[in-house]
Amino acid sequence: MVEVLVHFVAPALVGVLIGIASGLLGIGGGTVMVPIFRLVFGMSATMSTATSLFAIIPTSISGAISHVKGKTCIPALGIAAGLGG
Q1: Could you tell me how far CA 43 lies from the centroid of its own chain?
Q2: For the whole prediction, is pTM greater than 0.70?
Q3: What DSSP element (H or E) covers 76?
Q4: Which of 41, 46, 2 shows the shortest CA–CA distance to 15?
Q5: How far apart are CA 37 and CA 49, in angstroms?
Q6: Domain locations in the chain?
């Protein structure tokens, strides 16, 4: 039971808290999430980055859809910047 808590529940709760703090502060969640998963939970760099991306990609897609629907962005410019990146 403790193993499940340490390996699954605690990282999920930390992720939610990081998401809330990132939204309030206007910073990228991965900037905080990867180091915390590395230092606090002892995850490898690959696992920390993958876990961060698992949360960031759906959030980014949702935000992009919202901005396109609200006409608060220029989609062609976003696509060009994404491809260039």
Answers
A1: 16
A2: no
A3: helix 75-84
A4: 41
A5: 9
A6: 2-84
Rg (CA), the chain: 15
Quickly tell me which residue has 């959030």 as its tokens.
59
| pLDDT exceeds cutoff 90 at 22 | no
Phi-psi domain of 73 (left: phi exceeds 0; alpha: psi -120 through 50; beta: other): beta
Please tell me what DSSP assigns to residue 7: I
- Residue 70 and residue 56 in contact, taking contact as beta carbons nearer than 8 Å: no
Band of residue 71 on the pLDDT scale cut at 50, 70, 90:
very high
Query: What's the chain's average pLDDT?
Result: 84
Backbone angles phi, psi at 40, to 5 degrees: -85, -45
CA 34 to chain CA centroid, nearest Å: 9
Measured distance CA(39)–CA(44) in Å, rounded: 10
How far, in Å, CA of 32 to CA of 15, rounded?
A: 10
